[in-house]
Protein backbone atom coordinates (compact mmCIF):
# COMPACT_ATOMS: atom_id res chain seq x y z
CA UNK A 1 0.00 0.00 0.00
CA UNK A 2 1.45 3.34 -1.00
CA UNK A 3 1.47 6.13 1.54
CA UNK A 4 1.31 8.75 -1.21
CA UNK A 5 -2.23 9.95 -0.40
CA UNK A 6 -0.94 11.31 2.92
CA UNK A 7 1.55 13.50 1.09
CA UNK A 8 -0.84 15.11 -1.41
CA UNK A 9 -1.15 18.84 -0.77
CA UNK A 10 -4.64 20.05 0.07
CA UNK A 11 -6.29 23.43 0.49
CA UNK A 12 -7.65 24.00 3.97
CA UNK A 13 -9.94 27.00 3.83
CA UNK A 14 -7.70 29.99 3.13
CA UNK A 15 -4.46 27.96 3.18
CA UNK A 16 -2.90 25.49 0.76
CA UNK A 17 -1.04 23.02 3.04
CA UNK A 18 1.71 20.60 2.10
CA UNK A 19 0.35 17.26 3.32
CA UNK A 20 -2.66 15.54 4.88
CA UNK A 21 -0.95 14.52 8.10
CA UNK A 22 -2.48 16.88 10.65
CA UNK A 23 -1.48 17.18 14.29
CA UNK A 24 -4.56 16.60 16.48
CA UNK A 25 -5.20 18.94 19.41
CA UNK A 26 -3.24 17.80 22.47
CA UNK A 27 -3.56 19.37 25.91
CA UNK A 28 -0.05 19.44 27.40
CA UNK A 29 -0.53 21.81 30.37
CA UNK A 30 2.62 23.90 29.92
CA UNK A 31 0.99 27.29 30.59
CA UNK A 32 1.01 29.08 33.95
CA UNK A 33 -1.94 29.23 36.35
CA UNK A 34 -3.33 32.25 34.46
CA UNK A 35 -3.41 30.41 31.13
CA UNK A 36 -0.31 32.19 29.79
CA UNK A 37 1.96 29.98 27.70
CA UNK A 38 5.61 29.57 28.70
CA UNK A 39 8.33 30.47 26.19
CA UNK A 40 9.51 26.92 25.47
CA UNK A 41 6.09 26.01 24.04
CA UNK A 42 7.30 27.65 20.80
CA UNK A 43 9.98 25.01 20.45
CA UNK A 44 7.49 22.17 20.90
CA UNK A 45 5.18 23.36 18.15
CA UNK A 46 8.00 24.40 15.80
CA UNK A 47 9.49 20.90 16.08
CA UNK A 48 6.18 19.52 14.74
CA UNK A 49 5.60 22.14 12.02
CA UNK A 50 6.04 19.70 9.12
CA UNK A 51 2.46 18.57 9.80
CA UNK A 52 0.12 19.82 7.06
CA UNK A 53 -1.76 21.63 9.81
CA UNK A 54 -1.25 21.84 13.56
CA UNK A 55 -4.33 22.06 15.73
CA UNK A 56 -3.32 23.70 18.98
CA UNK A 57 -4.02 22.19 22.35
CA UNK A 58 -7.48 23.14 23.59
CA UNK A 59 -7.37 26.81 24.61
CA UNK A 60 -9.87 28.42 26.98
CA UNK A 61 -12.23 31.12 25.71
CA UNK A 62 -13.06 32.38 29.22
CA UNK A 63 -12.17 31.85 32.86
CA UNK A 64 -15.37 29.93 33.61
CA UNK A 65 -14.76 27.76 30.55
CA UNK A 66 -11.22 26.73 31.47
CA UNK A 67 -10.85 24.25 34.30
CA UNK A 68 -7.74 22.33 33.32
CA UNK A 69 -4.73 23.36 35.44
CA UNK A 70 -2.00 24.99 33.35
CA UNK A 71 -3.94 24.88 30.09
CA UNK A 72 -3.67 28.07 28.03
CA UNK A 73 -6.31 30.69 27.34
CA UNK A 74 -7.12 33.24 24.66
CA UNK A 75 -9.37 35.66 26.50
CA UNK A 76 -6.92 38.38 27.50
CA UNK A 77 -4.03 40.39 26.07
CA UNK A 78 -1.31 38.69 28.13
CA UNK A 79 -2.38 35.31 26.76
CA UNK A 80 -2.44 36.66 23.19
CA UNK A 81 1.07 38.13 23.57
CA UNK A 82 2.38 34.79 24.86
CA UNK A 83 0.93 32.95 21.85
CA UNK A 84 2.47 35.34 19.27
CA UNK A 85 6.07 33.97 19.29
CA UNK A 86 4.71 30.42 19.33
CA UNK A 87 2.66 30.98 16.18
CA UNK A 88 5.59 32.82 14.59
CA UNK A 89 7.88 29.87 15.29
CA UNK A 90 5.50 27.51 13.45
CA UNK A 91 5.16 29.90 10.51
CA UNK A 92 8.94 30.27 10.36
CA UNK A 93 9.09 26.53 9.63
CA UNK A 94 6.48 26.84 6.88
CA UNK A 95 3.73 25.31 9.01
CA UNK A 96 0.07 26.19 9.42
CA UNK A 97 -1.56 26.56 12.80
CA UNK A 98 -5.17 26.71 14.05
CA UNK A 99 -6.16 27.49 17.64
CA UNK A 100 -8.65 25.09 19.20
CA UNK A 101 -11.28 27.14 21.06
CA UNK A 102 -12.41 25.44 24.25
CA UNK A 103 -15.23 25.85 26.73
CA UNK A 104 -15.20 22.94 29.16
CA UNK A 105 -18.82 23.32 30.31
CA UNK A 106 -19.57 21.05 33.28
CA UNK A 107 -16.10 19.47 33.07
CA UNK A 108 -14.54 22.65 34.44
CA UNK A 109 -14.01 22.90 38.21
CA UNK A 110 -14.15 25.74 40.76
CA UNK A 111 -10.86 24.57 42.28
CA UNK A 112 -9.18 25.53 38.99
CA UNK A 113 -11.33 28.33 37.54
CA UNK A 114 -12.65 29.86 40.76
CA UNK A 115 -16.12 29.79 39.23
CA UNK A 116 -19.11 27.44 39.21
CA UNK A 117 -19.11 25.60 35.88
CA UNK A 118 -21.97 26.04 33.43
CA UNK A 119 -23.84 23.58 31.22
CA UNK A 120 -27.14 23.26 29.34
CA UNK A 121 -28.58 21.39 32.35
CA UNK A 122 -27.69 21.07 36.04
CA UNK A 123 -26.31 17.52 35.86
CA UNK A 124 -22.90 16.75 37.34
CA UNK A 125 -20.49 14.65 35.31
CA UNK A 126 -19.49 11.30 36.78
CA UNK A 127 -15.94 10.97 38.03
CA UNK A 128 -13.31 13.49 39.01
CA UNK A 129 -11.55 16.52 37.58
CA UNK A 130 -7.80 17.25 37.65
CA UNK A 131 -7.39 20.35 39.84
CA UNK A 132 -4.35 22.11 41.33
CA UNK A 133 -5.35 20.46 44.65
CA UNK A 134 -5.53 16.94 43.17
CA UNK A 135 -8.53 15.02 41.89
CA UNK A 136 -11.96 16.31 42.94
CA UNK A 137 -15.51 15.21 42.16
CA UNK A 138 -17.17 17.15 39.38
CA UNK A 139 -19.71 19.65 40.74
CA UNK A 140 -23.32 20.28 39.71
CA UNK A 141 -23.11 22.97 37.01
CA UNK A 142 -25.24 26.09 36.78
CA UNK A 143 -27.87 25.92 34.00
CA UNK A 144 -27.08 28.52 31.36
CA UNK A 145 -29.80 31.14 30.93
CA UNK A 146 -30.48 32.59 27.49
CA UNK A 147 -28.63 35.80 28.30
CA UNK A 148 -25.67 33.75 29.56
CA UNK A 149 -25.73 31.81 26.29
CA UNK A 150 -25.51 35.16 24.45
CA UNK A 151 -22.55 36.17 26.62
CA UNK A 152 -20.84 32.84 25.93
CA UNK A 153 -21.19 33.45 22.18
CA UNK A 154 -19.41 36.76 22.73
CA UNK A 155 -16.62 34.89 24.53
CA UNK A 156 -16.18 32.68 21.45
CA UNK A 157 -16.05 35.76 19.21
CA UNK A 158 -13.43 37.47 21.41
CA UNK A 159 -11.28 34.32 21.52
CA UNK A 160 -11.51 33.88 17.73
CA UNK A 161 -10.50 37.51 17.21
CA UNK A 162 -7.65 37.08 19.70
CA UNK A 163 -6.48 33.95 17.86
CA UNK A 164 -6.15 35.92 14.65
CA UNK A 165 -4.40 38.75 16.51
CA UNK A 166 -1.93 36.17 17.83
CA UNK A 167 -1.28 35.15 14.20
CA UNK A 168 -3.13 31.81 14.01
CA UNK A 169 -4.26 30.90 10.48
CA UNK A 170 -7.67 29.95 11.80
CA UNK A 171 -9.62 28.46 14.67
CA UNK A 172 -11.20 25.13 15.43
CA UNK A 173 -14.38 25.15 17.51
CA UNK A 174 -14.03 22.30 20.02
CA UNK A 175 -17.41 20.60 19.86
CA UNK A 176 -16.18 17.19 21.04
CA UNK A 177 -15.34 15.11 24.11
CA UNK A 178 -18.13 15.97 26.55
CA UNK A 179 -17.38 19.70 26.82
CA UNK A 180 -19.92 22.53 26.54
CA UNK A 181 -20.97 22.19 22.88
CA UNK A 182 -21.09 18.39 23.11
CA UNK A 183 -23.21 18.78 26.26
CA UNK A 184 -25.77 20.72 24.22
CA UNK A 185 -25.69 18.13 21.42
CA UNK A 186 -26.16 14.95 23.46
CA UNK A 187 -29.37 13.94 25.18
CA UNK A 188 -27.70 12.56 28.33
CA UNK A 189 -26.43 16.06 29.21
CA UNK A 190 -29.11 18.29 27.65
CA UNK A 191 -32.51 18.08 29.40
CA UNK A 192 -33.68 21.56 28.41
CA UNK A 193 -37.26 22.24 27.36
CA UNK A 194 -36.59 25.52 25.56
CA UNK A 195 -35.36 26.03 21.97
CA UNK A 196 -31.93 24.60 22.94
CA UNK A 197 -33.27 21.17 24.04
CA UNK A 198 -35.43 18.29 22.87
CA UNK A 199 -35.34 17.86 19.08
CA UNK A 200 -32.04 17.31 17.25
CA UNK A 201 -32.53 20.69 15.59
CA UNK A 202 -32.83 22.37 18.99
CA UNK A 203 -29.79 20.59 20.43
CA UNK A 204 -27.73 21.64 17.40
CA UNK A 205 -28.79 25.28 17.87
CA UNK A 206 -25.96 26.28 20.22
CA UNK A 207 -23.30 24.82 17.89
CA UNK A 208 -24.96 26.64 14.99
CA UNK A 209 -24.86 29.93 16.88
CA UNK A 210 -21.21 29.44 17.84
CA UNK A 211 -20.35 28.67 14.20
CA UNK A 212 -22.24 31.74 12.98
CA UNK A 213 -20.64 33.97 15.61
CA UNK A 214 -17.10 32.75 14.94
CA UNK A 215 -17.39 32.73 11.14
CA UNK A 216 -18.83 36.25 11.37
CA UNK A 217 -15.61 37.31 13.10
CA UNK A 218 -12.85 35.42 11.25
CA UNK A 219 -14.54 34.05 8.13
CA UNK A 220 -15.83 30.56 7.33
CA UNK A 221 -12.63 29.65 5.50
CA UNK A 222 -10.69 30.12 8.74
CA UNK A 223 -13.19 28.24 10.92
CA UNK A 224 -13.13 24.48 11.55
CA UNK A 225 -15.18 22.27 13.88
CA UNK A 226 -14.32 19.14 15.87
CA UNK A 227 -17.03 16.66 16.92
CA UNK A 228 -17.05 13.27 18.66
CA UNK A 229 -20.32 11.75 17.49
CA UNK A 230 -20.02 8.20 18.81
CA UNK A 231 -19.34 6.75 22.20
CA UNK A 232 -19.35 8.24 25.67
CA UNK A 233 -16.99 10.75 27.26
CA UNK A 234 -17.50 11.58 30.95
CA UNK A 235 -21.19 10.77 30.82
CA UNK A 236 -21.91 12.66 27.58
CA UNK A 237 -23.59 10.22 25.19
CA UNK A 238 -26.54 10.30 22.83
CA UNK A 239 -29.26 7.66 22.58
CA UNK A 240 -29.58 8.15 18.78
CA UNK A 241 -26.40 9.83 17.59
CA UNK A 242 -27.23 9.42 13.91
CA UNK A 243 -30.14 11.85 14.33
CA UNK A 244 -28.41 14.70 16.13
CA UNK A 245 -25.09 14.34 14.30
CA UNK A 246 -26.85 13.95 10.96
CA UNK A 247 -28.59 17.24 11.74
CA UNK A 248 -25.27 18.81 12.77
CA UNK A 249 -23.57 17.64 9.54
CA UNK A 250 -26.39 19.13 7.44
CA UNK A 251 -26.23 22.37 9.42
CA UNK A 252 -22.45 22.64 8.91
CA UNK A 253 -22.73 22.01 5.15
CA UNK A 254 -22.93 24.78 2.59
CA UNK A 255 -21.09 27.31 4.76
CA UNK A 256 -17.65 27.01 3.18
CA UNK A 257 -16.07 26.03 6.50
CA UNK A 258 -12.40 25.18 6.58
CA UNK A 259 -12.99 21.54 7.61
CA UNK A 260 -14.83 19.22 9.96
CA UNK A 261 -12.79 16.85 12.12
CA UNK A 262 -14.31 13.76 13.76
CA UNK A 263 -12.72 11.95 16.67
CA UNK A 264 -13.87 8.36 16.57
CA UNK A 265 -13.12 5.81 19.27
CA UNK A 266 -12.78 2.11 18.40
CA UNK A 267 -13.99 -1.00 20.20
CA UNK A 268 -10.36 -1.97 20.88
CA UNK A 269 -9.19 1.64 21.26
CA UNK A 270 -6.17 2.47 23.38
CA UNK A 271 -7.47 5.94 24.33
CA UNK A 272 -11.28 5.73 24.37
CA UNK A 273 -13.40 2.73 23.48
CA UNK A 274 -16.80 2.40 21.85
CA UNK A 275 -18.69 -0.49 20.30
CA UNK A 276 -20.94 1.91 18.42
CA UNK A 277 -20.53 1.97 14.66
CA UNK A 278 -18.55 4.99 13.44
CA UNK A 279 -20.66 7.95 12.37
CA UNK A 280 -18.15 9.12 9.76
CA UNK A 281 -19.67 7.24 6.75
CA UNK A 282 -23.03 8.97 7.33
CA UNK A 283 -21.39 12.35 7.99
CA UNK A 284 -19.24 11.96 4.86
CA UNK A 285 -22.48 11.75 2.85
CA UNK A 286 -24.18 14.68 4.57
CA UNK A 287 -21.28 17.12 4.97
CA UNK A 288 -20.06 18.81 1.79
CA UNK A 289 -16.64 20.08 2.93
CA UNK A 290 -13.19 18.76 3.82
CA UNK A 291 -13.46 15.89 6.33
CA UNK A 292 -10.61 15.02 8.69
CA UNK A 293 -10.72 11.76 10.68
CA UNK A 294 -8.93 11.00 13.94
CA UNK A 295 -8.39 8.11 16.30
CA UNK A 296 -5.89 5.26 16.40
CA UNK A 297 -4.66 5.69 12.81
CA UNK A 298 -1.24 4.60 11.65
CA UNK A 299 0.33 5.71 8.37
CA UNK A 300 -0.99 2.80 6.27
CA UNK A 301 -4.56 3.04 7.50
CA UNK A 302 -4.53 6.80 7.14
CA UNK A 303 -3.36 6.57 3.53
CA UNK A 304 -5.93 3.86 2.76
CA UNK A 305 -8.76 5.89 4.32
CA UNK A 306 -7.88 8.87 2.14
CA UNK A 307 -7.42 6.71 -0.99
CA UNK A 308 -10.86 5.16 -0.47
CA UNK A 309 -12.41 8.63 -0.26
CA UNK A 310 -13.56 8.21 3.36
CA UNK A 311 -11.62 11.27 4.50
CA UNK A 312 -9.54 14.07 3.03
CA UNK A 313 -6.91 14.15 5.77
CA UNK A 314 -6.06 12.30 8.99
CA UNK A 315 -5.14 13.89 12.30
CA UNK A 316 -2.68 12.11 14.57
CA UNK A 317 -2.59 12.77 18.30
CA UNK A 318 -0.35 10.60 20.45
CA UNK A 319 2.06 9.76 17.60
CA UNK A 320 2.99 13.46 17.44
CA UNK A 321 3.89 13.57 21.15
CA UNK A 322 6.81 11.15 20.91
CA UNK A 323 7.68 11.86 17.28
CA UNK A 324 8.28 15.54 16.50
CA UNK A 325 9.37 14.37 13.02
CA UNK A 326 6.30 12.17 12.47
CA UNK A 327 5.91 13.31 8.86
CA UNK A 328 9.50 12.31 8.00
CA UNK A 329 9.11 9.00 9.82
CA UNK A 330 5.99 8.22 7.78
CA UNK A 331 7.69 9.24 4.57
CA UNK A 332 10.76 7.06 5.15
CA UNK A 333 9.09 4.19 7.02
CA UNK A 334 11.18 4.87 10.11
CA UNK A 335 10.00 3.34 13.44
CA UNK A 336 7.93 5.39 15.86
CA UNK A 337 8.85 6.34 19.42
CA UNK A 338 6.22 5.77 22.15
CA UNK A 339 5.28 8.80 24.23
CA UNK A 340 5.68 8.60 28.00
CA UNK A 341 2.24 9.05 29.55
CA UNK A 342 3.77 10.34 32.82
CA UNK A 343 4.74 13.60 31.11
CA UNK A 344 1.61 14.16 29.00
CA UNK A 345 0.39 16.88 31.37
CA UNK A 346 3.47 17.63 33.48
CA UNK A 347 4.33 21.31 33.50
CA UNK A 348 7.94 21.24 32.24
CA UNK A 349 10.29 20.64 29.36
CA UNK A 350 10.77 16.95 30.08
CA UNK A 351 8.71 14.70 27.82
CA UNK A 352 7.81 17.79 25.81
CA UNK A 353 10.63 19.26 23.74
CA UNK A 354 13.22 16.53 24.32
CA UNK A 355 11.95 13.77 22.03
CA UNK A 356 14.68 13.31 19.43
CA UNK A 357 14.05 13.13 15.71
CA UNK A 358 14.91 9.83 14.06
CA UNK A 359 18.66 9.35 14.05
CA UNK A 360 19.08 12.13 16.59
CA UNK A 361 18.93 15.16 14.32
CA UNK A 362 16.41 17.91 14.97
CA UNK A 363 14.96 18.79 11.58
CA UNK A 364 11.34 19.83 11.95
CA UNK A 365 11.10 20.51 8.23
CA UNK A 366 13.06 17.45 7.09
CA UNK A 367 10.03 16.06 5.28
C1 LIG B 1 -2.37 13.97 26.06
C2 LIG B 1 -3.63 14.17 25.26
C3 LIG B 1 -4.22 15.42 25.23
C4 LIG B 1 -5.37 15.64 24.46
N1 LIG B 1 -5.91 16.89 24.39
C5 LIG B 1 -6.93 17.16 23.55
C6 LIG B 1 -7.38 18.49 23.35
O1 LIG B 1 -6.83 19.46 23.91
N2 LIG B 1 -8.43 18.68 22.51
C7 LIG B 1 -9.05 17.64 21.86
O2 LIG B 1 -9.99 17.87 21.10
N3 LIG B 1 -8.61 16.36 22.01
C8 LIG B 1 -7.56 16.11 22.81
N4 LIG B 1 -7.07 14.83 22.91
C9 LIG B 1 -7.59 13.79 22.01
C10 LIG B 1 -6.69 13.69 20.77
O3 LIG B 1 -6.81 14.86 19.96
C11 LIG B 1 -7.08 12.48 19.90
O4 LIG B 1 -8.45 12.57 19.61
C12 LIG B 1 -6.79 11.16 20.59
O5 LIG B 1 -5.47 11.14 21.11
C13 LIG B 1 -6.94 10.00 19.59
O6 LIG B 1 -6.07 10.17 18.49
P1 LIG B 1 -4.70 9.31 18.36
O7 LIG B 1 -5.11 7.85 18.39
O8 LIG B 1 -4.11 9.69 17.05
O9 LIG B 1 -3.86 9.66 19.55
C14 LIG B 1 -5.94 14.58 23.71
C15 LIG B 1 -5.34 13.31 23.76
C16 LIG B 1 -4.20 13.10 24.50
C17 LIG B 1 -3.54 11.74 24.49
Verbal overview:
- The chain has helices at 41-47, 77-92, 110-113, 146-166, 180-185, 200-218, 241-252, 280-286, 299-307, 318-322, 326-332; strands at 10-12, 15-17, 21-23, 54-60, 97-102, 118-119, 128-131, 134-137, 142-143, 170-175, 223-227, 259-263, 291-294, 313-316.
- By secondary structure, the chain is α/β, with parallel strands linked by helices.
- The chain has one domain (4-359): TIM Barrel (Alpha-Beta Barrel).
- Helix 2 (77-92) links the parallel strand 4 and strand 5 (97-102).
- The structure holds flavin mononucleotide.
- Residues 24-27, 57-58, 100, 174, 176-177, 226, 263, 271, 294-297, 316-319, 344 line the site of flavin mononucleotide (FMN).
Fill in the keyword field for this structure.
367 residues, alpha/beta, TIM Barrel, eight-stranded parallel sheet, two-stranded antiparallel ribbon, 11 helices, 14 strands, globular, disordered C terminus, binds flavin mononucleotide
User: What is the CA-based Rg, rounded?
Assistant: 19 Å
**How many domains make up the 3D coordinates?**
1
Approximately what portion of the residues adopt beta-strand conformation? 15-25%
Written as H for each helix and E for each strand, in order along the chain, the element string is EEEHEHEHEEEEHEHHEHEHEHEHH
User: Quick check: average pLDDT?
Assistant: 95
CATH class: Alpha Beta
Number of helices: 11
Q: Looking at this structure, what is the CATH superfamily?
A: Aldolase class I
Structural class: alpha/beta
Q: If strands are numbered along the chain, what order do they take across the biggest sheet?
A: 3-14-13-12-11-10-5-4
- Tell me the CATH topology: TIM Barrel
Amino acid sequence: MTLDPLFDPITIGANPVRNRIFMAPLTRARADADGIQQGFVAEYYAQRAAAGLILSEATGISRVGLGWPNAPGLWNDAQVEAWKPIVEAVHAQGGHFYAQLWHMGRLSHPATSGETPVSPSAIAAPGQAHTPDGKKDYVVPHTLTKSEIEATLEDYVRAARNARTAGFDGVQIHGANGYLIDEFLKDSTNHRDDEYGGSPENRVRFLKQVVEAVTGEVGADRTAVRLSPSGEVKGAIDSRPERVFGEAARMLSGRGLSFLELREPRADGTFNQSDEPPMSPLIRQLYDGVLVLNGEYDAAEGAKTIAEGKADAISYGRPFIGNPDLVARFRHGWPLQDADQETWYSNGREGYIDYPVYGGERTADAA
